[in-house]
Amino acid sequence: MKKWQILWLVLGLTLLSSPPLGQAQEKYPTRPIELVVPFGAGGVADVLARIYSEDFGRVLKVPTTVINRAGGSGIQGTTYVVNAKKDGYTLLAASGTPLVIMPAISKEVTYDPLKDLIPLGHLGTVPSVFCVRSDSPFQTLKELIEYARKNPGKLKNATGGLGTEGYFNLEILCAKANIKIPTVAFKAGGESTAALLGGHVDMTPDTLTTVGSQVKAGKMRGLAITSKARHPDFPNIPTTAELGYPDVNFLVFFGLLAPAGVPQPIVNVLIPAVEKVFTNAEVVQKITKAGVTVEYLGPEKFRDVIESKKLVAEKAAKDANIRVD
Question: Within 10 A of 52 (CB to CB), how many other CB atoms are there?
């Protein structure tokens, strides 16, 4: 057999053994998908991921498991996803903490959220609420600030992690009001709430999702909320802007991301699936009840959110001299 005939034979056999175009996309997914929450159980990111994970699995027709990988205010879990196998079976269910705040205030961050992750979809936002216990002597944020100014370092704050939006908002407030309030950091918002209710700390600037039920139950008092306008469910809680602190306005945002390097055919499967789940009426209703303002954004707009918030966080961190190292 001549050489050219052998070459044609080999080429023909190769084409016959190769999968048809698009088959890789058709075969994904075939096994369970992990949604990695870079915080402990009970925090708002965990709560939301568990709300939409079941529907996500139903849409993709494979089991979807929420995995908590807490540590470093989201750094460890995010790093895990960045370094995970690029096969679409490990995704990041993240908030803005490890994406925009920690890169601005911690040298422990080794990833670039804009280069090492692929935004799949933005779910929504939730404000932080500065809370004290219901039996606290502080009726207003002004009273708390005045006390802190006269008694530097005496008040203790609890947060679901250094670098969370609540922590960031408090540090900006302290810089603007010229006060000092030490922070005790926990792995999740549920733990910081328990610390406040248990009398171990004096305040917490946690998410509305985490503290809303406690405020409604009369166990906590909300002194200020970081939303642009007063929340309809808590009309008596003034905004930080109303109280003279417009820069204390970081909202927590949530979304789903994949590690950079995941093949485009797989990304093309994930993006419409995320949109379908994040806009599902039942999911939206549950997430809204959890205190989130639902606002689905596609990959490009989600990337714009990360980029713009990252710049704002960097400036705020520099102006207020916020570092956690």
Answer: 26
Residue type, 322: I
Q: How many residues are there in the chain?
A: 325
Q: Which domains does the chain have, with CATH numbers?
A: 33-125+253-320 (3.40.190.150), 128-225 (3.40.190.10)
Neighbours of 55 (CB within 10 A): 18
Sequential pLDDT tens for the chain (325 residues): 554 444 444 444 444 444 444 444 458 999 999 999 998 887 788 989 999 999 999 999 999 999 999 888 899 999 999 999 999 999 999 999 999 999 999 999 999 999 999 999 999 999 999 999 999 999 999 999 999 999 999 999 998 777 888 888 999 999 999 999 999 888 666 788 899 999 999 999 988 988 999 999 999 999 999 998 999 999 999 999 999 999 998 899 999 999 999 999 999 999 999 999 999 999 999 999 888 999 999 999 999 999 999 998 898 888 888 887 7
Handedness of CA 135, 40, 270, 53 (dihedral sign): negative
- What residues pair up with 239 in beta bridges, in sequence order? 225
The reported pTM is 0.82
Question: What does each C-alpha distance from 230 to 23, 37, 133, 240, 322 come to in angstroms?
Answer: 51, 29, 20, 10, 27
Question: Is the CB of residue 283 less than 8 Å from the CB of residue 113?
Answer: no
Which residues is 245 bridged to in the sheet?
Answer: none
Q: Which neighbouring-strand residues pair with 130?
A: 205, 224
Q: What are the structure tokens assigned to 67, written together? A: 């995995």
